[in-house]
């Protein structure tokens, strides 16, 4: 079979696909014939440009891309998406659920000397942590259950989440996201076991430092980039395309025995 058609008739549901890892995955999977349902939150101006890119991909690779500018964390929006998507995708045709949502709070746990009255008072709250953890971790479980209940998952489906080194070491202002990523890693382990009865394989990718829009929002991101280049044995930081290649590999038949793993995609950056 032509490699570019190896995923013909199959679908990927990508949560957070307007840029970074999510968009790179769309480009890679489209090249191999996979249809895409992508959810994102963008302004109308940004969405116009994004839809032009999607149109070019659908024409080039003869695949379908269904774009939804909705809140993937909202229960009603999720239910509406599933209902609509079920009319356009065959039963058991979702090969991949990719969780690439980057939404959360980047605040310190404490600001010494600050008071509530201070205009700059912006310490991390429990509510911030809860919002970030649901966005970047627990929402994966809700989406998995919704797709499963609608009988859309392929019998050899894949679930992929994205974590980072910041789940295991200190990054300035990253506490809420670190908690969320650590939670995601734990959740994926349990999903790998308990959803295996449905043929689903759940894995998490730990990318190296990658210059994405999300990274640039982290305080001191320039330092992370410089340190990443210095640490990386291959002399550069990770690119979204590097991660997209592994997402593709995890969708192939040959990867069916990979389940419950945290896969480093960083050129060996984690070794130093």
Task: Describe the fold and architecture.
The chain is an alpha/beta fold. The protein has one domain: NAD(P)-binding Rossmann-like Domain (Rossmann fold, 3-Layer(aba) Sandwich). Helices cover 41% and strands 16% of the residues. The chain contains 8 helices and 7 strands; from the N terminus they run E-H-E-H-E-H-E-H-E-H-E-H-H-H-E. The protein has helices at 20-31, 44-61, 75-85, 126-149, 175-194, 213-216, 221-231, 240-251, and strands at 11-15, 35-40, 65-69, 94-99, 153-163, 201-207, 262-265. A 7-stranded parallel sheet has the order 3-2-1-4-5-6-7, with helices on both faces. Strand 2, helix 2 (44-61) and strand 3 (65-69) form a beta-alpha-beta unit. Helix 1 (20-31) crosses helix 8. The longest helix has 24 residues, at 126-149. It is globular and about 60 Å long. The N and C termini lie far apart (41 Å). 39% of the residues are buried. The model has no long low-confidence stretch (mean pLDDT 93).
């Amino acid at each position: 079979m032509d490699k570019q058609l190896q995923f013909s008739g199959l679908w990927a549901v990508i949560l957070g696909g307007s840029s970074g890892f999510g968009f790179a995955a769309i480009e890679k999977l489209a090249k191999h014939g996979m249809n895409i349902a992508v959810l994102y939150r963008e302004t109308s101006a940004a969405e116009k440009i994004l839809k032009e890119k999607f149109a070019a991909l659908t024409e080039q690779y003869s695949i379908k891309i269904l774009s939804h500018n909705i809140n993937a964390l909202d229960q009603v929006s999720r239910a509406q998406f599933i209902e609509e998507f079920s009319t356009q995708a065959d039963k058991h045709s979702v090969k991949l659920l990719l969780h690439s949502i980057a939404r959360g709070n980047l605040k310190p746990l404490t600001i010494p000397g600050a008071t509530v009255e201070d205009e700059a008072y912006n310490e991390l709250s429990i509510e911030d942590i809860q919002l970030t953890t649901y966005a970047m971790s627990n929402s994966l479980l809700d989406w998995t259950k919704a797709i499963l209940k609608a009988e859309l998952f392929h019998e050899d489906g894949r679930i992929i989440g994205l974590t980072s080194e910041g789940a295991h070491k200190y990054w300035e202002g990253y506490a809420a996201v670190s908690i969320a990523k650590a939670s995601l890693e734990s959740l994926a382990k349990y999903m790998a076991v308990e959803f295996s009865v449905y043929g689903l394989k759940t894995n998490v990718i730990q990318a190296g430092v990658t210059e994405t829009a999300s990274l640039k929002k982290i305080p001191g991101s320039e330092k992370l980039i410089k340190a990443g280049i210095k640490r990386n044995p291959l002399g550069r930081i990770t690119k979204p395309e590097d991660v997209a290649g592994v997402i593709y590999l995890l969708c192939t038949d040959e990867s069916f025995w990979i389940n419950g793993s945290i896969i480093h995609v960083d050129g060996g950056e984690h070794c130093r």
